[in-house]
Amino acid sequence: MTINTDCKITNSSGKSVVVLNAANSSTNVAKNSPQQGFLQDLKALPGQSGAVVLADGASDTFTLNGTYVDAQGDTKTAYIYDLLVSQPDSLFPVMAVGESLNFDSLSYPAITVTADAAANMAKAMNFARTS
Q1: How many domains does the chain have?
Q2: Residue 64 — φ and ψ, nearest 5°?
Q3: What predicted TM-score, i.e. pTM, was given to this entire model?
Q4: Residue 44 domain flag
Q5: Are 49 and 104 contacting, i.e. CB atoms less than 8 angstroms apart?
Q6: Residue 70: what pLDDT?
């Protein structure tokens, strides 16, 4: 059975968004071990429509076909993604999504970006600023 790398994302957040892949595929060459941390690269994923910005009320399909280097130095297909759905002007997060391949259907579940998720991110920022 073939893996379906398509992931449909519907934006109902009340604002335009970009979809960023925050998974870090870098390796420590000396020890060849995966690393995760701050200051990682964020890759904006274009939709299959060609657009990078997903307007409020719009849907698009995104291709999840990334790779990583394993501990043995081999390049492997990634099946788990850390997606940050963010505002295009500031990259402030609207919703964080851990997206993984469904191993029964061999496809990625659809994602709906909600206004509640956007409000919760803003509340978290306000809490962090006032605490």
Answers
A1: 1
A2: -105, 95
A3: 0.85
A4: yes
A5: no
A6: 80
Tens-digit pLDDT profile for the chain (131 aa)?
799 999 999 999 999 999 999 876 555 455 555 555 555 678 999 999 999 999 999 999 999 999 888 878 889 999 999 999 999 999 999 999 999 999 999 999 999 999 999 988 888 877 877 76
- Let me know if residue 1 belongs to a domain: no
1: which residues sit within 8 A by CB, 6+ positions away? 106
- In the block, tokens 């299959």 appear at 48
- CA 80 – CA 129 distance, rounded (Å): 31
Structure-token pair, residue 22: 């925050």
Q: Do residues 45 and 39 touch, judged by C-beta distance below 8 A? A: no
Please measure the distance between the N-terminal and C-terminal CA atoms of the chain and give it in whole angstroms.
Answer: 51
The answer to whether position 54 is within a domain reads yes
Residue 125 lies in a domain: yes
Q: Are 1 and 55 in contact (CB under 8 A)?
A: no
Segments forming the whole domain that contains residue 40: 6-130
